[in-house]
């Protein structure tokens, strides 16, 4: 009854976790045995330490929970999570009398099978009376040599085979009273599996060459495989290993366990290297998000490789900074999975800055610790609430990494923590500095002596930072930059510049949301709430717009002036009028753009004066206000029929930045062309496109061409998920139409009698797209193919002289959609262009085909 009672007790304790244990009577009822017999057997198990007993009425029993044993498995990350079930299975197998249940571990490469087997051995040695050795054997080593395999497993006697000069102990003999771990059991051939049958059945075996009665050994066998057991092991072999435990993949484990593993492996490397380890946000993000097909084993290896690369560059430093450049390629790609990662709800509880402390094993002072700063990326938290890539759309990754490294060192030396807006501000400052130095331009210097007196510690750190900047960027940095770095390092969150009085920045632009959208992007990026916007719809009276500006300026002016960022027209004169009527000092920057708003707010937040902000922006502006662009070539018409105009008001730099922004957010496959255009070039470029038979389907920026466009968007709209998705759907419509148009041209040319199929299709397409734009509705790809094929075939037959007579079938349904009604009104224009007269019943059928699903923008 012992085995049956043990199984029942384990099961009942597992089911009754809210109770201390179960009574002998409950077990007796389940087993249908007499209570006194069950009680006697339970007391025997208590004596052996396998069961715990609690006196009372009734007396309760439960499986022993040895504190030492719990401590062994408690070292596993996820012991109360993804590994809870495997641990409980392992304990049940280990405690099963008399010697335990042989166990099979299976799971993918790198999940920790060898580690788990070792912990099973430690737990067994501590919590039971079995104190034998832990013996490991890789079955792959002798998979193709059964004779040697037999000798390894069971041992051999002298003379049993050529070269056997003495008796040899086998693995079973060595592991007697302990555990034998058979790794890669799937590499053991069928004959090798059969060799173990006798021992698994009886506990007896013979050495190779022996003829006497078998030997006995009490060995607990744990086997491991990366394959599914039923595909590689004999059924008769599996039947003899009753306990099977599957270990989870890293991808199936919760996110908090993955982060704990990253911390653990960083801790191990810090001890080995005796250095602080700082993982930059982008590196942490990548380690958390990459797929890691090799599971925990690969994660550990990749962290070691990253530390090795960082160590090679920073061997003399006290702290290793793990940057994105130090990561293996497969890990770097992990950052691309960020959106998937953000869907995990537990991420909300894990964002923040964690610090790990580890003891230096060779420290001369007791208790001395090495702090490991494990920095979680703020971008992860921000991205949940704003679907934009923030600063990475404006600043190169190398400069972002450099800004992180500079601020991390400053935090360590100055004993302070910087908010995200300082990180963003420094990254953009470095970006602006690099561009300025490449153009040979200098900036207004600070009084370095005054800064040294006011911020002595920050000044020293700034001076030390110059070497790192020059080494990283391979450029000579003027000493004046020490002043800027000092101000960044001296930043104090509690000493708010805006409360102290700074230059007020007001954005004004035509449109219902243009100004507010640009300001919102800049505020999110810099993590500030300051700055103001006034949207000026085209229908708003200029006098009303000025009154709104005057009321706002009076409220927000702190005595240091107001900077106006405007787009065009009458808004350019508002600054002078505002100063005259209110006495507020103002400055106006024309042709506002999102990068310009970001730069102005950044400098204002750092405490720059109005004059300094204006001079800095003007120094970085391109000298040419009109972007020079080569004419649109006719060759581009062969590759794309549709065009999105990128309307730039800020010169060449702004044009390239806007084009890059669109390419990063919108997928283009050849049917749609991006065309940048500067102020004053709208009509000229549009005319060239028409000559190339290309159609403008959308404009991003302030479009002022003579012809209207189907879709007009602000540059900042690209950063909003809803607007970006709307544009992508619209682009997909034209991409698909272009592809279908190309296919129909080749197909119809073969099947139609007319030699003017291309011209007919072109005329129909031009007419249809004009009607769609007027109606504000666009046909789907299925409808487009149907109506285009129907029309071209109809006209082809009419031009060949075929006569049509009225049909007697059911009349076509009248026009219902806006598009169908517009088609009916303008059908005569299509007849005139193609020089055909459609029969009335064919007109009705043709119009009714537009009573279909349409796409609206």
UniProtKB/TrEMBL annotation:
InterPro entries xref list: AAA+_ATPase, ArsR-like_HTH, HTH_MarR-typ, P-loop_NTPase, PRD, PRD_sf, PTS_EIIA_man-typ, PTS_EIIA_man-typ_sf
A Gene Ontology molecular function term of the record: DNA-binding transcription factor activity
CDD domains in alphabetical order: AAA, HTH_ARSR, PTS_IIA_man
GO biological process, one term: phosphoenolpyruvate-dependent sugar phosphotransferase system
SMART domains, sorted: AAA (SM00382)
Classification via Pfam families: EIIA-man, MarR_2, PRD, Sigma54_activat
Domain PRD: 394-499
Residues in Sigma-54 factor interaction domain copies: 76-308
Keyword Transmembrane annotated: no
GO cellular component: membrane
Superkingdom of the organism of origin: Bacteria
Entry keyword set: ATP-binding, DNA-binding, Kinase, Nucleotide-binding, Transferase
PTS EIIA type-4 domain span: 502-627
Protein name: Transcriptional regulator
